[in-house]
Amino acid sequence: MKRIGVWIAILAVLILALAPQALAKEKLKIGVLYSITGSFALAGAEPGQRGSLIAIDMWNDKGGAGGKYELVPVISDAQSSPDVAIREAERLIDVEKVPIILGLYSSSIAVPVAPKCDQAKTILWITIAISDKVVQGRHQKYVFRPQPMGSQWGNSSVDYLKDNLAKLGVKSTGDLRLAVIYEDGPYGTSVQVANMARAKKYGMNVVLNEGYNHKAQDLSSLILKLKASKQDVILHTGYYPDIVLLIRQARELGLTTKALIGHGAGYANFPNLQKQLGPELTQYIHNVDPAPAQNFDLSKFPPDIATSIKEFLKRYNEKYKEPSPAAHATMGFAHAWMLLKTLDYAVEKFGQPTPDNIRKAALELKIPEGASPAGYGMDFAPPEHEFAGQNLVSYPVVTQWVKGKVEIVWPSAMASLEAKLPMPADSPLAAK
User: Fold this and answer.
1) Cα end-to-end span (Å), the chain
2) Which residues have CB under 8 Å from 10's CB, separation 6+?
């Protein structure tokens, strides 16, 4: 009897030792590739990465992908360099053997990395980079972008102006004097091309159209051209240090305007701009981007989505002490959420989350408007489409920094505040 008791005890120990292994979920690696050092970090890549990692943590807490796979983020730093980003993407694919790469802040990085992933049959899920060139005409099969694309930024800012002509003190679109300035990489040119095409469509008077290198150390010559142009409104597409430089030198050289409208990147982080420039200079500046989560009217969302948004904001504030994170944090979170929802679908319908199964799931799964933490839905263009892999139902809004708060001012259906146009006189940049 003693021997039997000993064997029972040994068997019980073995069962207890093996039980966690038997119950343990399979692990699914996800490469998380953002520029967390270098100039792109402060411009928005760092909050984007934070948002994506919070989404992964929340998914693991509720059981992982399809309730069967624990998600393991493999964090990588693109260092704000296309060359480094390519090497890191190759390392994630060849060494880490990840089936998915999530992230990419800069279009200058996304443009060369996308075909590398597509050729390797590795899913690339782009959360922030917006250039049309990332997807246009490439017919990639493994590249998906839930984020709106650059031309939508350029269209939205001009549409916003068209809808607010009276506030700007002009009677017709032909009376509006518009200046378009931009960093001359893939990101800036995508927005600029759309700005120009939309302005032409409405018959607006473009008095300056000029690009520059975003690494420029002096933008005084551009500012003098802006002064000479006698513009009413400045549309600007830049990254971060160049935005700070432009605004700082604009004040030094006495540039004024009725409205300064940015298109993402550093403009999305108004609190950080305010730290660099002070509250007076930052006040009333506009930005075009997907709406920050804290600006949503959660009563308009399904209960489960509203709960996810609240949990995201709660975790972000607890970890980073930011109750109103930059818009890029919402992009990182909401677009990662769409990937994780797609993984659930792939596991439930196709079994294993292989790149081919994830690809099929991404093309099949349709998310209606309001049913994601981004506000808009998800519906990817198929490979034969001119913009294969692009989310065809995503869109940005226009926001304005007013009294230390981000406010949505366009479209009117989503507005949280009436636009302050022209720029009120208490701004040093306001046209007198």
Assistant:
1) 99
2) none
> Which run of H or E residues covers position 28?
strand 26-34
| AA identity, residue 258 | K
Q: Assess contact for 390 and 151: CB atoms under 8 A.
A: no
pLDDT at 19 exceeding the cut of 50: no
Give residue 21's pLDDT: 42
Which among 218, 308, 234 is positioned nearest to 267, based on CA atoms? Answer: 234
Q: What is the 3-state secondary structure (H, E, C) of 227-284?
A: HHHCCCEEEEECCCHHHHHHHHHHHHCCCCECEEEECCHHHHCHHHHHHHHCHHHHCC
Q: Is the pLDDT of residue 295 over 90?
A: no
CB burial class (10 A; 0-12, 13-18, 19+) of residue 202?
middle
What pLDDT does residue 22 have? 40
- DSSP state letters, 331-390: HHHHHHHHHHHHHHHHHHHHSS--HHHHHHHHHH--B-TTSSTTSS-B-BPPTTSTTTTB
With 90 as the cut, is the pLDDT of residue 416 above it?
A: no
Q: Are 147 and 331 in contact (CB under 8 A)?
A: yes
What is the bridge-based pairing of β-strands 405-410 and 233-237?
unpaired
Q: Which residues contact 335 (CB under 8 A, 6 or more apart)?
A: 52, 125, 126, 127, 128, 146, 147, 374
Across the strands, what pairs with 33?
Answer: 76, 103
C-beta separation of 398 from 288 below 8 A: yes
Residue 46 in 3-state DSSP? helix
pLDDT of 242 > 90? The answer is: yes
Residue with tokens 């420039």: 277
